[in-house]
Specification:
- The chain is built from 3 helices and 12 strands.
- By secondary structure, the protein is of the alpha+beta class.
- It has one domain: Jelly Rolls.
- The strands form 2 sheets. A 7-stranded antiparallel β-sheet has the order 8-5-10-3-2-1-11, with helices on one face. The chain has a 5-stranded antiparallel β-sheet with strand order 7-6-9-4-12, with no helix packed on it.
- A hairpin with a 6-residue loop joins strand 1 and strand 2.
Length: 186
């Protein structure tokens, strides 16, 4: 008789443990099954760039965040003077939605100032850079038409709250070479 309560207790622990071990509703357990998701501004995979210490971003949507195989979404917070280096995406169009701040955007040979509310469209293979030229933070959402670039962003960053180990120029060049299918830098 004493074994019945013990068995029930063990079964309850195993059941509750299996529930706790499940993947969160915002992370897909299958690469083929995207999860409909609503994310607040602070939700997602928070990270800090190693090559740009202090510049933070949140990976929102992609294969590892919600399971999308066809797009990726990131939000970024740039301090005054911070700059996204000149690069292009050979296989993806990109949209940058500026929520706050003022940026100097270089698209190919064209340079334009973009303010809060602006949408920047970058067709695939177009050179792009953006610099925060304002006195406040520049916050924006980046949307790529194919996933993959978010893996480069993981490679050059650390999860928020972890020590930021600066990258050498050689480290950065090696990582960029590994991810040339998703982004090519000048």
């Amino acid at each position: 008789m004493r074994s019945i309560p013990l068995t029930i207790g063990i079964a309850a622990i195993v059941f509750c443990g299996s529930l706790a071990a499940r993947i969160s509703p915002r992370q897909s357990d299958s690469a083929t099954k995207p999860i409909p998701t609503v994310l607040e501004s602070y939700e997602g995979e928070k990270r800090e760039f190693r090559a740009r210490p202090g510049a933070t971003f949140i990976l929102k949507i992609g294969p590892k965040n919600s399971g999308s195989q066809t797009m990726a979404v990131v939000t970024e917070d740039m301090a005054p003077g911070d700059k996204i280096p000149t690069h292009r995406h050979p296989h993806a169009d990109e949209l940058i939605l500026i929520q706050s701040g003022t940026g100097k955007v270089m698209l190919g040979a064209k340079v334009q100032i973009a303010h809060a509310g602006a949408i920047v469209f970058i067709p695939k293979d177009t050179w792009i850079s953006m610099e925060n030229i304002g006195t406040d933070h520049l916050t924006h959402t980046d949307i790529w038409s194919t996933s993959g670039h978010e893996e480069y962003m993981r490679a050059v960053s650390v999860p928020a709250g972890q020590p930021v180990v600066p990258m050498t120029e050689q480290d950065l060049m090696e990582i960029r070479k590994k991810f040339t299918h998703y982004a090519i830098f000048q």
